[in-house]
Amino acid sequence: MSSAHRRYGHRVLVQQLLVGLGAFGALALLGPKLLSLEDEIAAEVLSAWARLAVVALMGTGALTLARLRADQPNIEALARSAGPRHPQEIERVADLPTILTMRFFALSSVVSSALFIRGIRPDKLDDERAISLLVLAITIHGAAALPHYLLTRAATVGLLERSPIEQVGALLEKAELYQTPRRRVTQKLLLAVAAPVLLVGVGAVLTAHAHLRTFLEQSRQTTAVLIARAALEPSRSGRGEPGRADAIAAAAELGFIATRRPERLFEAEPSFERENDGQIAVTVPLDDGRAVIRFSANLDPAIGTWGALTAILAVLVAGAAGLMFGRVLAGDLLHATRRVRLLGTDSVLRGATQIARPARFKVVARLGLAIEDLTARFRVFAAAQERALEAREAAQRMRGLLFASVSHDLKSPLNSILGFAELVGQERLTPAQQESLGLIATRGRELLGLIETILDAARVEAGQLTLESQPTDVAELVSGAIRKAHELASDVNADIAVEIAAGLPWIPVDRAYATRALAVILAHALRVGTADPSARIVRLTAAFADLNGDYIRIEIDYGSRDVPPAELEALFNRQTTARGRGLTLGLSHARSVVELHGGSLEVLGALDGRPLCLAFFPKTPPHVRPRLSSFPTLG
């Protein structure tokens, strides 16, 4: 178990324990008073509630631990801000507050019903008051479920805020499709209004019922004493045993079971005792013994029924009001959400910032005003960003034109220099003159290649490089690239091993640009190998890229570990500079040329650390202009 999962579980369990203790504490405090229980019965009830509270809290804790253990991978992923792999896993975490709250309420209510089990239920607690206690317990547990849900939800929201935006967006889209947010807002407001009314209503009914029962018990106790003294006392009735029998029969018709015993009491005052079956026994001292009168003080069921109906009616009225308010709030939020989603850069720039209609809830009105203020600020930012983008595009166009103009102006005299050098080379020269002339021609061709690269890179950056693709034999493309590579790296005396698979089809490429792109990579590989004494020969391999034969793969093995694969990848992305004398700009341009053909260029590492450059060319030309992964940077 990770520390994040442990902290979340500890927080949820502590909150659940506190809410459970509060619920059972309120039940122990309010139950005896609301139901007017005698001290002896109240003490036994408190003892029973204490035992049941321990069982309920341990049970809910075990259920919570089991669910948290099942969701441990999802919770740990959210804690690391990595997020689960699927939106359904985020939904499982989001459902934790509801599930844990339902388990808390259900188990607490079931455990409270154990008050009817013999051995737990106090002996002198009658069925009527036991049922009243159970109703009160379920009501209090239901009211405690609301803070339990809110506290657990607050702990879970901290995890959900770390979820990946993409997965949360997919989850919200699914929820909105089924109108889940609107239903939940309505349900929560319904519960928020109905739960307090239910608690107050049930408490009022139980309190009124208990007080009426207490009043009835006291009045019937007084009646029982009067019956005993008036009808069973021989000195007053004067009717003897037959008269007493008639009086006992008449009392039985009124619900008073009277028995006369010859044993006399030393106490002069009547005594009252609640028996195990819930009946009350009144013992009255007589001149010739004592009278025991038993009776029950159960209220007419109609009284409890009317009280329950009144409480239900109050809850229904409150629920209807909560449902109405919930629908109004959900409607306002739905309207505001739709208006927010309609806001885009264009609408914000046009000044469409009203989020919601006149809201009937202040919270929605404040939300709308806050978002309107935010969009007003965003309008300024968006306008500035639009101007910055326009300025950047203009600067790029101007820079491309400048490089193209300068490169063109340099290319013309350089061609003249190379032409004159070729003419001079036809004359009879001394060895020293031939060496100098060769150096001029070599460096001139390098400079010409660099200028051509700059011109092409400027066209790529401006989006003006147009390819003229035509079917080309792979072998001819490779041979042309090797010749061009030797020209670009004429100072390197090294060979290139070539291996071309049989049966390769012709591919649609621009021969000039594709040849030059491969030549730049080969020339860079040749130059890198000169600085590594352990370098092997540069190797070029052409074959099918996959079983379908949709792409041709041209693989260039650098043969040297002097340039790591990561550094070579950075050179292709123009993120760093390295050895190669002007060829590094050509590498980034080579990737652009390959991608403009509809292919791709990748850099991998061999097992011994040597870099491998893989160029993929499609067998068929692309229908639309491909999107480049990066642009060659001119400065």
Give a description of the structure.
The relative contact order is 0.05. The protein starts with a helix and ends in a 17-residue tail after the last strand. A hairpin with a 5-residue loop joins strand 10 and strand 11. It is an alpha+beta fold and 635 residues long. The chain contains 18 helices and eleven strands. It has four domains: 3-178, no CATH class; 216-301, no CATH class; 343-465, Orthogonal Bundle (Helix Hairpins), CATH 1.10.287; 466-618, Histidine kinase-like ATPase, C-terminal domain (Heat Shock Protein 90, 2-Layer Sandwich). The strands form three sheets. Strands 6-8-9-11-10 form a five-stranded mixed β-sheet. A four-stranded antiparallel β-sheet has the order 1-4-3-2, covered by helices on one side. Strands 5-7 form a two-stranded antiparallel sheet. The model is unreliable at 576-581 (pLDDT under 50). Helix 1 packs antiparallel against helix 2 and helix 14 packs across helix 18.
In short:
The chain has 635 residues and is of the alpha+beta class. Helices cover 65% and strands 10% of the residues.
Any chance you could write out the topology, listing elements then pairs?
Blueprint: H1 3-34, H2 39-70, H3 72-79, H4 87-94, H5 96-112, H6 127-160, H7 165-177, H8 180-231, H9 234-237, H10 240-253, E1 257-261, E2 271-274, E3 280-286, E4 289-295, H11 301-342, H12 345-350, H13 362-425, H14 431-462, E5 470-472, H15 474-488, E6 496-500, E7 507-509, H16 511-530, E8 538-544, E9 551-557, H17 565-572, H18 583-596, E10 600-605, E11 611-618
Parallel strand pairs: 6-8
Antiparallel strand pairs: 1-4, 2-3, 3-4, 5-7, 8-9, 9-11, 10-11
Helix pairs in contact: 1-2, 1-6, 2-5, 4-7, 5-6, 6-8, 8-11, 13-14, 14-18, 15-16, 16-18
